UniProtKB/TrEMBL annotation, chain A:
Gene3D superfamilies: ACP-like. Its main location: cytoplasm. Pfam families: PP-binding (PF00550). Transmembrane segments: none annotated. Residues 1-75 form the Carrier domain. Carrier of the growing fatty acid chain in fatty acid biosynthesis. GO terms for cellular component: cytosol; membrane. Belongs to the acyl carrier protein (ACP) family. This is Acyl carrier protein.
Amino acid sequence: MEIEEKVKSLVVDKLKVDAEQVRLDSKFNDLGADSLETMDLIMAFEDAFQITIEDQDMAKITTVGEAIDFIKQKKATA
Amino acid sequence: MIKRARIVGTGSYVPDKILTNQDLEKIVDTSDEWITTRTGIKERRIAPEGVYTSILAMEAAKKALEQAEVSPKELDLIICSTISPDQPLPSTAAFIQHGLGANTCGAFDMAAACSGFLYGITVAEQFILTGKYKRILVIGVELLSRVMDWEDRATCILFADGAGAAVIMPSEDDRGIVHTIMHIDGAFTDYLHIPGGGMRYVSSHETLNNKMHFVKMRGNELFKVATRFMENVSREIMEQTKISIDDIKYFIPHQANQRISIAVAERLGLPMEKLYSNIDRIGNTSSASIPIALDELNRAYKLDKGDLILLASFGAGVTWAGVLLKW
C-alpha cells in the first residue's frame, strides 16, 4: 500500500531509525521522538500527503499505524 | 536621490546577571540536558530589580546612535517594539524619548511580539522612502523575566531580557532594506499570550490567583506554525527579490528555540554555517532577539558591504515577517 510505505519511509528518514524497527504499533515516542520531533514528523506527513492535520487530531496520532489510518481516512474524505 | 532605507548603526544590551540551566534546576523541575536538547539554550540574561524596559532600551539605543554618529536630538522618529512595557500607560517610547534627550519628535510603541523589530524597520523604511523622515531609531526590547510563571517549566526556561536597536537613514545606493513582508493570522491568538491585565480580563485578585498575568504558551502547536511560517516568508522574500538561498550570507531567524531555527534552515536547504544563532547565551528575547543578533554580527566585523542578510521572525498573534538586507 502506497500510503503505508510512504509513512514508514518518512518515519525512518525523520527519526533516523532502521526500517525493521518501524512497525504499525510502534509509538513515535518509543522510536526516540520527543514532542518537537513528533511535530516535525506530523508536518512531514502534511507536506507529503498534501493534507492538514488539525490541532485536536495531532494528539490522536501517536503510532505509525494511527498515522496511516488517519491519512487514509483524510484522503478518502478529501 | 533616496534609493533605499539603510541600517546605519546597531546596538544591543543584555543585563549582566546570567541565569544558567543549572540555576533553573533549583527553581523548577527541569534539567540542563532537557533544556539543552529541547531548546538549545544554556544560559540567559535577567535584569536585576529596579531595572525596567526603557533602561535596557536606552542602553542599546545609545550604542546604535553612537555607531551611526547621530545625536538623539537629530532623531525624527522613535519606534519601540515591546510586549513588556514600563507601564500600561504611557508608552515606553515616551520614557525613551525623554531619557535619551531626544527632541519632541514622534515616538510610539509597537506590539507585534517577536516580529516587532521586523515590523518596526518595515514601518521606518516607509517614512525614509517617502522622504518624510531622515533619522529613525527602531528598538526591540523585552523584560520577559517579569511576565514568566517561574513554576511553569515550559516557558520560564525559554524567555529572557535584552534590547537591540538600529538607526535607519536614507541610502543613495542599493545598500539597505531590499524587501520586507509582514503577516499576521489571529486564528492562533491563544498559542502564545498573556490573557490578563488588559480590558478583557481586567487585573483583579482572581486574574492574579489564576496567573493570567503570565505568558502562556502552546509549545507544540507553536513549533509547527513557527517553522512553516518562517520557511514560507523566507521563500516569499527570495522569490520576490529573485535571489536564491546561495546568495544569502547569513540567515538570522528569531531566536525562539534552536530546534525551530534548525528545522527552518533544513527546510530552506540552508547550509548550517549560514544560520546565525546566539540562543545558547541569550535565550529568547522576543522582539530584541533579531537586533541583538544583528548587532553581534556587525560588531564582530562579520558583515561586509553588499552582503545579503535574510531576517525572519514569528511571534504571538501569530505574527510573522521577513526582511532582506543588503549590508
